[in-house]
Each structure stands twice: as structure tokens, then as C-alpha cells.
Amino acid sequence: MSSKVQVYLFAFILIFIGIGLTIYKNSVLEFPLLPGERRALWTVEAKIEFQAKDEPVIVSFALPHNPPKMTVLDEDFTSSGYGFGWDNNTQQRRAQWATRNATGRQVLYYKLQVYEGTRHQQEIEATPPPEPSPPELESAQKTAINNLVNFVYQRSASPSTFAAELMRLINEPRPMEDISLLLGNKNTSSRKVKVALDTLAQAKIPARIARGLFLEDGRRNQKLTTLIEVFENDHWVIFDPLTAERGIPNHFVLWQRGGKSLLDVEGGENSNVSFSIIESTQPANSRTLVEKANAKAALVDFSIYSLPIEQQNIFKSILLVPIGALIVVLMRIIVGIRTSGTFMPILIAIAFIETSLVTGLAIFLIIVSIGLFIRYYLSHLNLLLVARISAVVIVVIGIMAGMSILSYKLGFSEVMKVTFFPMIILAWTIERMSILWEEEGPKEVFIQGGGSLLVATLAYLSMTNTYIEHLTFNFPELLLALLGGILMLGQYTGYRLTELRRFQPLAEN
Amino acid sequence: MFFTWPSKIRAKGILGMNKRNVSYISRYNPRHLYPYVDNKLKTKIVAEKYNVATTKLLGVVEYQYQVRELGRILEPYQGFAIKPAQGSGGKGILVISGKRNGLFVKTSGEELSLNDVMRHVSNTLSGLHSLGGKPDVSMIESLVNFAPVFDNYSYEGVPDIRMIVFKGYPVMAMLRLSTHASDGKANLHQGAVGVGLDLGTGKALLAVQKGRPIHKHPDTGFGFDSLQVPDWEVILHLASSCYEMTGLGYLGADIVLDKEVGPLLLELNARPGLAIQVANGIGLVPRLKKVEGIQKPHTSVEERVSFSKAHFSM
Lengths: 509, 314
Description:
The structure holds 2 protein chains of 2 kinds. By secondary structure, chain A is α+β, with helices and mostly antiparallel strands.
């Protein structure tokens, strides 16, 4: 069988499988083909890590309980080697994992799927809490807190207005003297929460801490945000201690309300909880994914969805790289654009995703221009290649640091994203372009540099396209079809678009 | 019109880059034979084995410590060319035509100190001029004492003849003349003039610079009508014998004319460019098809050359 026949056979099989699986997922499993038909389904994963001390381990972890404004679709407790149960010792909803013996680093996962909106607005629990005892403070602070309570009391009418005014005052850029004294020199958010709670206790207003998570797609290693709840009449009112805003913020899952700590580990040390969040698509009117997953549709069970959220987030961007590769293949084989380095444009496009296009282009041009200038000087120093490239890498890092600092001082925060550029690739680009300049002249540098940027821009535009992003993440099997297409392009023997220009004089005579 | 239709250039038999790569280079040039052309030092060694005439090797610099001895190595020679053994696209070739006050004079008249030359060689060794930055060796070759026949057509640098040899049959040839614009280099995309040559006689057919037809040399002003390459028969034989020498089916041979020793093989190329079609005003595809269609390929150089002269002459 000739290589041509093999390539076409392979390509055909790959495209057939890819398209076939996509159609199956769309028609049988009801995965939507278009992103417009979806409802945001948030999957939150809590990753509990600790170092076990070679003795029985009990882990108790606070869980969200009917979070307001949210509907919980599914929960999952992954814990190999651990028994799972509910911690009934407290009023809260807490999960409990236990094992007889464990050593070394342990990782437990808790996964929660929620979507925003709820059919019934449940009333927030309303047993009146006991009156709080006043905080223990030094005498100077005691005076300050009394002054503060009196001051705020005059300017409020109820526990909730008291709390709102108090938090507004604490968060003023230049707080009044009593507050500055209480805050001390540590002006952190946890200190502000502490001062707010102390003041409320001093004013005999029942208050407690609530913790929750802001839902943002593709976040990893997130921590919970602390809110303050204040008891008024017969219900709890929630405040954001950093904005003094009342009520639950949007896109926010209330995780823990009152009670003791978020996580207790017996038999372990150095415990830590981090949260990953991913947004996925869900048909607006059905709960396809979860229902099918519970029915163990093999395609879903053995898909990217079965991975921990942290890995899913990584794959979400990895799956876009083949799209960039396709653009490079098209532009080089069909159009005939010359680029500096085959896949350099993809890496630049990935950096553009983080920096946004215009800022990214500007940063790239500035770094490469300054780099070329410095490289011009280095070429007179008679350095060996590896040493020279390393010198250029260091120069690039210097330029990046300089740009970050300068832009931060001038107040453009976008430029600080310069760190997303791959510096080794930048160094090689500078090196290659400077050689090109010496040997072929500036014209060739502009042709290849412009070609690279054009391809990077096109790759960026297609990689950030909502439809393409939706398709690559929800139908990763389309990668097979893409592979088939690229294999066929590898056998393309037709003319390139640039050749239609190049050989144009030949066609005319 | 800015662009032409694909059907129009297909009708002319123009070979495109993709078709060249897929249908000719990857089909007829086995990968393991590439070192014979990509590494000029190896090319020289096999050329000597097959008695193919080439320029004389004056010295090789393999290691950085030898760079310091460069002054001593270059002492006896007035003119020479320093080349990276694995350079690509004519990169890193330094041609010194003479010495003046202890300085080295390039063909363009620019003067270089020994330090500059040492830096150039050091760069070559560390891989600056080779594909992918691989460490390389630097070769010092005798300068071609080029025959005066092209004096009227060349401004700085050595004119050379590029011949495409397919399965041992010369299929197309052009003369590349350096110009002021190309800095003494004979690469067409750098502004050198390409003159299409008749395979039967070695006479000029057409001349182009930067893709446009011209009638006289831009620097010397001489017309191309009367241009005739001497020793044409020898050149065809030299090019054709490169097939046995390397085993590569699709090959570009660069040949120069020396005043004393006649045609010399300068270097070989396993991925010869497509500009030769523009210089000849004709496409490669019909000729390549003709060679592919030969039922019993000729085994001797003489037979192949006479086949080419008979079929590929205008």
C-alpha cells in the first residue's frame, strides 16, 4: 500500500470516528453543539491535603448546606482508603473521613456541582443566638472600641444598619483614629474581619463568620472568602466585610455558616484546603450530564470530565493547542506565509490569551525591538552561541521585569501580564531575527516577523472563539478529526497562495 | 493582476513547493543520504572518491581552541573561502579575495581584521550558521580563480551554474550572477540575476532579477543575448555524476568555472529551490515526468547526458 493510500485511509478513519462520536454525543447524550444553549454548571472541587502522622486519622470538613441562590446538583466524595460518613457532633453539615492508619501525604477530594438560581427561596435559620460576650482587649483598645460603638450607634438604627456603617468606616482609605488603633499596622482583610466582629460583640449584636467561594471559571488553588453574618430580629443578614455590601454577592456559593473551623484533621498535620472551579456546559432544560454519568455512559465515564477539576482546567487550555497547530499548518502549507520558527506563533498566541491581543502585540514588539538592539551589541563581543542565547534570555527577563515595574508605577496593570510570555522562545526569536537581519537584511526580518505575528493573531482569534472553545472541550473526540485533516494536509501537493503571486509572471507570457 | 489562477501555472507545468516536498524530495531523497550534501566536508570526501572535480580543501577548523591558530593556517594564502560544513542557504560563507595591510579584504571591498575572521569561525563552530544551531566545523577552501568569460556579467563574487539533476538526468540549468544588490552572493531571493540556460548548448534563454525579466546586467550593463557557457558538455557530465556520488534522486548541483581547471563542483543541495523555473520561463513538471516515464533508466553518465540534451533542449 503506498504511503498516500495509507495516509488517506488513516485520515478517513480518524475523521469518521471523530465526527461519529461527536454526532453520537450530540444526538444520544444530548451534548449541545452550540455554546448558546447552555446553562452554566459550576463544578467546585475542594482538595484537602495533609501530612499523616502514622496513626488513626479523622478528617472533618464543613460542607455547604442548601447554599442560598444556588441549586446543588450533585456531590461526590473521592477518598480511596478512607471510610466516609457524616459528622453528627455539630449543628453544621460536616463530612467525616476516617482511616485506621495512614502515613505520608494524603489527598482527599470533595466535588460539588451547582448551578445558579433556585426554585424556592428557603428562609435562613432563625433560632436567636445567645448574646455575645464582650471581647477581651487591652485598656487602650477598650476605650477605642467603646468610642467606636458609641459613634456608630448614633449613626445607625438597627443591628444591620450598625453593621453596614461599621464596615464602611473600617474600609475607608483613611479610617478614623479609633479604627486605625484597633487595626494596628496590619491592615489585612482578616484583621478587618476581627475588628468588625469585636466591635459587634462589644455592641452586643450577635454576629458570626460565614465563608464562601466566588465562582470564576478555570480557577485553581482558590481560598474561601470570609463574610460576616449579623442577627437581626429573627434572621441572619450577610455582609461583605470588605465592601460593606449587604446580601450574598453574585456568583457566590456560601460554604460554611458559623460553627468552628472549616477543616479539622486528627492524626495529621500541615493540613490545607484549596478549591478549583470550572464552568461547564449543560443543556438548559435537562440534567443530561449528571444523569448519564450516573448511568455510566462509558463515553462520559472515560472522558476528561472524570478527571479532577484541576486537571480538567489544564486540559481546557491544552485542547486548544491543536487548533493553533492547525492554523500554523494551514498558513504555511496552503497560504505559504513564512514564520520565524515553526510553532513559535502558537506559544505567542497562548501568551496573547492571557494578556489580550492588543496589549500582547505591543509587549511582544517592545521586547523584541529592545532585544534586537541589545543583541546587536552582543554580536560584537565574540560570544559562543549557547552563552549568547543565555545572555539574551537574561536580557529578556530584565526587559520583562523593567516593563512590569515601570507599568505598575505608571498604573497600567495589563502590562504586568508580560510574565505570560515564554522567555526562552522570545530569546530564540530575537537571536534568529538578528541573524536574519545580518544576513538577509531588514526586509526579511519584517516579512518573517510580520508573518509570525499574523499567524499568532489568527491562532489567538480562533483559540479564543467561543464556539471553538466549546467544541474542543465538550467534544475532545473532534481532535481525531483534526488529526485526520492535518494528515491529509501533509499530502497536499497543490500550489501555495503565495506561489500564485510568485509565478504570476510565468503564467502571463 | 496580482495573483494568477492555479490552473494557469499548472498548465505551464510549474512545480510548487508542496509538490516538490511531497512528490520529489521525500520520495526520491532517502533521509540517510542527506549528510552527503548537508555536510560539505562529507561532500568533498565522496567527490574525491568519485573523481568529481571540486575546490581544494586548505584546512579544517574543528574545535574552538584551533581558532587561535587561524592566523597561522591562513598565512600562506592570499584568497580563500571560509564555509560552515553544515551551513544552510548560503549562510556563513565568508569569501576573502586578498590581503591588504594585514587586513582581510572581502569581495565587496570591505576589510576585516583577523579578529573578525576568528569571530566568524568561532560562530560557525558554535552552530550559528548551521540548521538548528548544531555545532559545526569550519572549512577553508581555495578560492575559485574564476574564468573571465563571465567578467562582463558579474559584479563582485563568483557566478555559478545551478543544475537540477533528477535521477541522474540534468533537467534544468541556470546561471546565477551576483549583483551589487546581492552583496556578492548568488542567491536569487537576495537580488542576484538568474539566467536560464539551454540544456543542449549552454546558451542563455532568459534573464530575471527579483522575478522580473531583464535584458542586461543591472551593474555592468552587458546584454545577455550573446552569453554562452563554455565547457558545457563537461558541466553536464559533472552534474550528472553527482547522482552516483550521493544516491539522491532530486538534487541541485552548484558548479563554478575555474580559469585553470575548468568546471568545479561547489556544493550540492538536496532541497533545491524553485526559482530556476522563473529564470527559464518554463515549469519543471513536464521534464520530471519525462524522466519518471523512462522504462529502462540509463546507467552511464554519457547516455543520461545525451538523453537530456536531446529532450530538454529548446
